[in-house]
Amino acid sequence: MSVKETIPEHIGRYRWTICSLVFFATTINYLDRQVISLLKPYLEADGLLGNDPAHYESVYSNIVIAFQFAYALGMLLVGGVIDKFGTKKGYAAALLSWSLAAIAHAFAKGPFGFGVARAALGVTEAGNFPAAIKTTAEWFPKKERALATGIFNSGTNIGAIIAPMIVPFIAVTLGWQWAFIITGAIGLLWLIFWKIMYDTPEKKLAKGQLKQAEYDHIMSDKDEVVAEDDSALKKISWFKLLTFRQTWAFFFGKLLTDPIWWFFLFWLPAFLKEQYGLTGTQVGLPIALVYTMTTFGSILGGWLPKRFMESGMDSNKARKTAMFIYALFPLLVLGAQKMGEFNMWYAVIIIGIDASAHQAWSANIFTTVSDMFPKRAIASVTGIGGMAGALGGIMIATAAGSLFDYYKAAGDIRIGYGIMFMICSTAYIIAWVVMHLLVPKFKKIENL
Asked: Which of 36, 75, 159, 334 has the fewest beta carbons under 10 Å from its own?
């Protein structure tokens, strides 16, 4: 089902233009983020991960951790900054900064240099999702937010599809340095379109660039309008936000599930190499298949709860039911390696299903923030959850590096991947239970 089929023509569609801008920003975000995982073999060959091949996995995991630690730190800061200075300035500053940080990787000369560049990328890339979720809350009514989030969040998949198609080719033809430079420079083009096309619905209405009918549709959630009018510019501190169970539900939901996405993003190329001997451009097709599948997961993830609501289910039950369904699919990963013994593509497809379920889950867990918090707190709460996800990513990267070095030395790294797949398969069910226990009903906080 397309967006066009679900939206009446007379309302107007400018909000979907805004959604497309956020989609492209997210695509660029993940394109820049994934480049290093595809260049890992080239960096090893050039001796840029140290002098001891026995510790390459741990050195690489430390570089990944540098990104994730900085990303967590960035999440401590950027959400509040974006809430304070607004989406237009905050998003533009974040994307400019992470594009320059991505380019800076080309000038690294060893593990320390890559660690510094990854840290710079982590701090600056932290701005994407707080700004994106705030944009969605500003431009979409509650019933459309999961769909809009699913659409822009599918940019993570497109970025991950494009990367394996172009990065190894650039590395082979021009050198690994140019892979960082060219992909990093793409974000600078986005800034032009953001400057021209983005503003708040109020300002677009005043300029005659937004129909009154569409503006009324965007502002149709009466409970949000009342809540925002009652405390228009009141600043909400992190300490205040941390007193709510809703904040902790989002925190633990992200802590437990974001690391699974991080793991596949940074280690899927290495898994294909270790398990099936794929190298260089050979990894492009299976990785592209995985992330093509996740694109459908992203959009379905937003569409299903909307369909439940349109059939008469209340928004809380619709969101919870959809998230429970998505939490079941990753259990298939328990059989990925076994099925891969018959044919590699069986394992690839199962991993694709897991990644698709993650994106469907992600579209909804992000939307729970706007379900439960007023618009002025959305970027801050999203930042708290993003920090939690990054901390989880640090833990899974540390575990992966240690496990893979140990089992590689023992002669069978596949055991290490088997252990990691057990973690990946059960994380979502555990997260759903924790969130449900903390917040039995996703409803707007009234005393904030």
From this structure: 334
What residue type is 132 in one-letter code?
A
For the packed helices 245-276 and 344-372, what is the interaxial angle rounded to 10 degrees?
170
Contact at 8 Å (CB) between 381 and 346?
A: no
Does the domain made of 14-216+231-438 have the CATH classification 1.10.510.10? no
How do the domains of the chain map onto residue ranges? Answer: 14-216+231-438
- In order along its 448 residues, the chain shows pLDDT tens digits of 444 444 445 677 889 999 999 999 999 998 998 898 888 888 888 888 877 777 787 888 889 889 988 988 888 788 778 877 888 898 999 999 999 999 999 998 888 998 999 999 999 998 898 899 889 988 988 778 878 887 888 887 788 788 888 898 999 899 999 999 999 999 999 999 999 999 889 999 998 888 899 888 888 865 555 444 444 446 677 788 888 999 999 999 999 999 998 898 778 888 888 888 887 667 778 888 888 888 788 778 878 888 888 888 888 888 899 999 999 999 999 999 889 889 999 999 999 999 999 989 988 898 888 888 887 787 788 888 888 998 898 899 888 888 888 888 888 888 888 999 999 999 999 999 999 999 988 777 776 6
CA-to-CA distance for 167 and 164, rounded, in angstroms? 6
**pTM listed for this prediction:** 0.72
